[in-house]
Amino acid sequence: MLILSRKAGETICINDDIEIKIIEVSGDKVRLGIEAPKDVKVLRSELRQTMESNMKASDAVSPDTFKDMLSSIKNKG
């Protein structure tokens, strides 16, 4: 792991196409701006963990249960 110290307004470059700019430092929070190509996913780690957890949960639902759930939703509308 590379550990760097940066001040507001300074940047970090990754390869030739990703730039991370320190926007603001306030107390224990840092605001970052990230410029990256559209095909590069940039996610907060907690969002990524939630997505992975949701995928695992959806894998546990059988196709028949899923069809029943959809039918139930359609019947309420």
Q: Give the number of helices.
A: 2
Structural class: alpha+beta
Largest sheet: 3 strands, antiparallel
Strand arrangement, largest sheet?
Answer: 1-2-3
Fraction of residues in helices? 25-40%
Q: Using the alpha-carbon principal axes, give the shape.
A: elongated
- Uncertain stretches: none
Average pLDDT, rounded to a whole number, is: 90
Task: Give structural notes.
This protein is of the alpha+beta class and 77 residues long. The protein has helices at 45-59, 63-76, and strands at residues 11-14, 18-26, 29-35. A 3-stranded antiparallel β-sheet has the order 1-2-3, with no helix packed on it. It is elongated, with a radius of gyration of 21 Å. The mean pLDDT is 90.
Quick summary:
It is built from two helices and three strands, in the order βββαα. It has helices at 45-59, 63-76; strands at residues 11-14, 18-26, 29-35.
Question: What brief labels describe this structure?
Answer:
single chain; alpha+beta; 77 residues
Can you lay out the helices and strands and say which pair or pack?
Layout: E1 11-14, E2 18-26, E3 29-35, H1 45-59, H2 63-76
Antiparallel strand pairs: 1-2, 2-3
